[in-house]
Amino acid sequence: MTAETSQTLDRGLRVLKLLADTDHGLTVTELSVRLGVNRTVVYRLLATLEQHALIRRDLGGRARVGLGVLRLGRQVHPLVREAAMPALRSLAEDIGATAHLTLVDGADALAVAVVEPTWTDYHVAYRAGFRHPLGRGAAGKAILAARQHPMTDPGYTLTHGELEAGACGAAAPLLGVTGVEGSVGVVMLAEAVPERVGPRVVDAAREVAEALR
Fold first, then answer.
1. Residue 69 banded pLDDT, cuts 50, 70, 90
2. How many CB atoms lie within 10 A of CB 209?
3. pLDDT (0 to 100) of residue 114
4. Torsion of CA 180, 200, 119, 139, to 10 degrees
5. Range of lowest pLDDT (26-35, 71-80, 117-126, 128-137)
6. C-beta of residue 26 within 8 angstroms of C-beta of residue 65
7. pLDDT class for 99, splitting at 50, 70, 90?
8. Interstrand relation of 108-115 and 98-105 (parallel, antiparallel or unpaired)
């Protein structure tokens, strides 16, 4: 800690991070041990966070992340979208296909940014706000591939006709971006994805990841 930082705020943020990393919540005693502070301090931190709906406590006294965090998280989408737009525009123009940034939203893949190419005679209409199960479509499957292989780069994922008849897609996950789980991809009307598209999508995903770090 330095003179310019707040010890209380630092501890509160550490509480949120600890709770975000567990599915079953933590007790006051467990938080006290992990933070290295006494239980009274933890009680005060939890009471303040609970007042802002950032944490909740169940009947057994275990603290969990609250719905207030989700409300804050929704405001992240515009920031992520803005950071991704240059790479998406370049990808759409280069490939001549609709490019998109997709983020995880519960059990769904949610398109938060879409760029259509300007020079093609036709392309797939794909709108921001479109959602589909993570297990269907290249965007969601790329995210799942990254989950299954967290220590390696899974490369890109290709699909055909899973979300729209006659359309195929390619997507690569965002890697190394704390707090953001998503993918960058393209969707096009074709029998198969051209060979150069997969590596180009991987490059675009890396560009977006760099912009978000």
1. confident
2. 21
3. 95
4. -40
5. 71-80
6. no
7. very high
8. antiparallel
Other CB atoms within 10 A of residue 148 CB: 9
- For residues 133 and 108, give the distance between their C-alpha atoms in angstroms, rounded to a whole number: 4
Give the integer Cα–Cα distance in Å for 5 and 201. 40
| Res 76: pLDDT | 67
Helical H segments across the chain, by residue range: 7-20, 28-35, 39-51, 67-74, 76-95, 138-148, 197-212
Mean pLDDT for the stretch of residues 205-210: 96
Q: How many residues does the chain have?
A: 213
List residues bridging with 186 in a β-sheet: 99, 170
**Tokens of residue 156, six digits:** 């890109």
Measured CA to CA, the distance from residue 105 to residue 94 in angstroms comes to: 29
What number is the average pLDDT over the span 67-78?
Answer: 72
* Bridge partners of residue 57, in order along the sequence: 63
* Alpha carbon 112 to its chain's center: 10
Question: What stretches of 2-38 show up as alpha helix (H) in DSSP?
Answer: 7-20, 28-35
Q: Which residue has the tokens 């398109």?
A: 111
Q: Residue 183: CB partners within 8 Å, gap ≥ 6?
A: 101, 102, 109, 138, 139, 140, 142, 143, 146, 171, 172, 173, 174, 205
